[in-house]
Amino acid sequence: MQLSTSATVQTSHNYLNNVLGGILVPIRTSIKHMSLMQMLIKREIVTRTSGTVLGILWPLLQPAMQVLGFWFLFDVVYGMRQNRGPSYLEFLLTGMLPWMCLSEVLNRAAGMFREFSSLYHRAPFPIEMLPVFIMIIPALVYALVYGLLCFYMFGFIAAAKSLLVLPLLLLWLLPFTLLFSVLGVFMRDFTQVLPFLLMLALYCTPILYFPDMLPTQAQSWLWLNPFADVMTCIHALVQGSTIDAATGLRLLLVWLVLLVPSWHIFRRSLPHIREVL
Question: Rounded to whole angstroms, how far apart are CA atoms 271 and 61?
Fold first, then answer.
């Protein structure tokens, strides 16, 4: 009995260490190599804006113009405010912008190692910082646009709360980012199929429609979709409603279950990535 208890404690301790490792190692590596991180961010901004008239404004204007496009399509063309109530557009935009950020990060994660192979192929490079790096620019860009949007729609308090949405979302996405980066190296087809999978996930997640627009039987199965829980929490946080305990618990369990194996796969794959590329 004592041996069983000791083994359980040891297993729990190892699991907790892997959880902390999956979170802290990328963040600690990024802080340790802050000058390198700043150089990569400057390089990213220059790459995105070089040769353009509006320069650094373009990363902000792109999601802003997408917001205007959604407003024109669903409010002006389809008249969804009249058909589904005045809160429909607010519901759509408060979920759609985080989803756009999510899609950008995950799609880039799948090609992360190939994109930055020139940095570490011939010289030592802290690869563990790359998952953090690919999240920084989308987090900054979408957080600013999202904050302004929430301020316009809901006021100052909602805008302040919205600043928590993307950091928490990206932290929850960390296991997916770690896993997808490895799959993108060893399974080339994964980078091709991922945009299609994310599109299917978008259609299966209450973003373009209210949950009650689904058939009753389909509504009862929404709990199987973790992205539906993510959007429920985002809407609740921004609009000031209560987050259901079961929804938050499911998200936490998915994160804990995925983080350890994703971090383990990521860490064990690093010595072989240079060989593959």
Answer: 40
